[in-house]
From TrEMBL:
Subcellular location as annotated: Cell membrane
Top-rank taxon: Bacteria
Domain Major facilitator superfamily (MFS) profile: 9-393
Residues annotated as signal peptide: none
InterPro entries the record matches: MFS, MFS_dom, MFS_trans_sf
Keywords: Cell membrane, Membrane, Transmembrane, Transmembrane helix, Transport
Entry's transmembrane regions: 12-36, 42-69, 168-187, 217-240, 252-273, 339-363, 369-389
Gene Ontology cellular-component annotations: plasma membrane
Membrane topology classification: Multi-pass membrane protein
Organism name: Mesorhizobium alhagi CCNWXJ12-2
Protein name (Swiss-Prot/TrEMBL): NreB protein
Gene Ontology MF annotations: transmembrane transporter activity
Lineage, highest ranks first: Bacteria, Pseudomonadati, Pseudomonadota, Alphaproteobacteria, Hyphomicrobiales
Length: 439
């Protein structure tokens, strides 16, 4: 897997991702302490609102940012957004009012909503070989999982010698180092194939997404992932400390079990995907998520919870990691920023709903009912994914172009399949507005 780091451009981008993630992890810890400093016992409400603001920014801003990403040099855009994020982190230690936290979080997460999809859309152009790109996706998944383990430990160590306000300095450094690493390489910036209006550019990614059968299936899988993931992220502390009567260290261990399952699958997935289709792997992972979430309704002990969270982590990684391959396969290079932004916005829309549901249902009906509700959502989503994403999903598709002049150069693409039809790698674009034989 590590062989992909021999590509200098990707190596620098991967390191930029790692240092930015660590900086973000330090900010997450510091933000919790800042909320308590400002709001005391109401810190949970402050953090909950900040999380909701984050998700709203992700859903609303990503498609708009993608519309501009199509017109701007990628390197300049990524560096500018890193600098914006560093500036916000620099201001956070000086806030004195809760509303100021909300404003800065919105700006910070809006910058992230522009940065992350653009960054993700760049990797397929840097690594055009699918095997190498698959390994890059697994490395990215490992980076996210390691950050969730390393950042809290690093923050705890730093807090023994500095105040929590200084943790934000680590975030600033992370974003600045990230921007320096991006500056150090030349990034491909595909040009748009034709001038487009702002509405067309803003909605283009979502229109391509919803017109592609495999991506409609991906949206359903995103729903299953969010349903199971929300149970873990929102309610682990309730399971561990309220149900089993344990303390914070056991809560951290339970979350580490979830991360451990995800990391293990991320390590073995590239080899697995050499022989198993994306559809089979992702549906299997989502099915595991649904079954394990259902089992969480009757988890008998803390030991079983650790095992169950490990299994959910494994299903989470198997369901999530290959998604970049689907997006790459379903778009032309110039449309990738818009399509990755659509995935970013739609998947976080799922999280926005399931986060709220996991917290509200647990308070109103208890953990058992919450697990059953989320399991039902996940199972329904798996069934929808299997229906929406056809088992026969070839990359090269025969299709016709009624009304396209025979002199049009597009007819030279692919191979002639019959009268008024040809076959080539099919994606939704200006010449292909609907999927052939779409159901």
């Amino acid at each position: 897997m590590l062989g992909v780091l021999s590509n200098r451009t990707y190596r620098h981008l991967f390191l930029a991702q790692v240092v930015a993630l660590i900086g973000t992890g330090l900010a997450t810890v510091a933000l919790g302490l800042l909320a308590f400093d400002l709001a005391g016992e109401n810190a949970g409400a402050v953090l909950g609102t900040a999380l909701a603001i984050k998700m709203v920014a992700y859903v609303a801003v990503a498609p708009v940012a993608a519309a501009f990403a199509e017109r701007l040099p990628r390197r300049a855009m990524l560096v500018s957004l890193d600098i914006v994020r560093a500036a916000v982190a620099l201001l956070l230690p000086f806030v004195t009012e809760i509303w100021q936290v909300y404003v800065l979080i919105f700006v910070l997460q809006s910058a992230s909503a522009g940065f992350t999809p653009t960054f993700q859309a760049t990797i397929p152009d840097v690594l055009p070989d699918e095997r190498e790109y698959t390994r890059a996706l697994s490395l990215s998944r490992l980076a996210y999982d390691l950050e969730s383990l390393v950042s809290p430990v690093l923050a705890a160590a730093l807090l023994t010698v500095i105040s929590f306000h200084n943790l934000f300095a680590g975030t600033v450094v992370g974003f600045l180092v990230s921007s320096a690493l991006v500056v150090s390489v030349v990034l491909p910036s595909p040009k748009a194939s034709a001038p487009r209006g702002i509405y067309d550019r803003t909605t283009r990614g979502i229109r391509i997404y919803l017109a592609t059968p495999r991506l409609r299936g991906l949206f359903a899988i995103n729903t299953a992932v969010a349903a199971a993931g929300a149970l873990v992220i929102v309610n682990t502390v309730v399971y561990v400390q309220a149900v089993f009567g344990l303390d914070q260290s056991e809560t951290a261990l339970a979350l580490a079990a979830f991360g451990g399952g995800s990391m293990l699958v991320a390590l073995v997935l590239p080899r697995l995907l050499d022989s198993v289709s994306d559809r089979a792997a992702m549906l299997a992972g989502a099915s595991v998520l649904a079954a394990a979430t259902f089992a969480a309704a009757a988890v008998p002990s803390y030991g079983w919870l650790l095992l169950l969270w490990f299994v959910i982590g494994a299903g989470y990684s198997m369901s999530q990691t290959p998604s970049g391959r689907l997006l790459r396969r379903s778009s032309r290079a110039e449309d990738r920023p818009a399509l990755f932004a659509a995935q970013f916005a739609l998947s976080h829309g799922c999280w926005l709903v399931t986060y709220a549901l996991a917290g509200w249902a647990a308070a109103a009906f208890g953990l058992q009912a919450t697990a059953l509700i989320l399991a039902a959502i996940a199972a329904s989503a798996v069934a929808a994914a299997a229906w929406l994403w056809p088992a026969a999903d070839p990359e090269i598709v025969e299709h016709s172009h009624d009304g396209l002049p025979v002199s049009h150069p597009h007819w030279a693409e692919g191979s002639v399949a019959g009268r008024n039809s040809h076959a080539h790698a099919f994606v939704i674009d200006d010449l292909h507005g609907t999927w052939p034989h779409a159901r």
